[in-house]
Write a structure and sequence with these properties.
About 40% of the residues lie in helices and about 30% in strands. By secondary structure, the chain is an alpha+beta fold. The longest helix has 15 residues.
Length: about 90
């Protein structure tokens, strides 16, 4: 199993729009092979930092989703809104 940490920085003005896009992404992800779960966290000590944590059965399944057209289109909207690229961190369970 792997966990993906997806870190984004957003202005207060764009926070609601970002959350709507994240919810669209989550709706699109549910039912994909290998997807286990996900959660969205707002950092308390760093306003504007949003962390999405998703759990996948393997890197293979994550890579399929990550390279999909559906995800790329939503991600492009997110990056345009934020004005920067999203940061991904991939962790494997021991």
């Amino acid at each position: 199993m792997i966990r993906i940490h997806i870190r984004r920085h957003v202005s207060e003005d764009n926070q609601q729009a970002l959350m709507a896009l994240i919810n669209q992404m989550r709706s699109a992800i549910v039912g994909n092979p290998g997807y286990v779960s996900g959660e969205t966290l707002k950092r308390i000590d760093q306003p504007g930092e949003i962390l999405v944590v998703s759990k996948w059965q393997s890197h293979f399944y994550w890579k399929q989703w990550h390279e999909s057209r559906e995800r790329a289109a939503l991600q492009a909207d997110i990056d345009k809104l934020l004005g920067e690229q999203t940061q991904y961190e991939i962790y494997e369970y021991e």
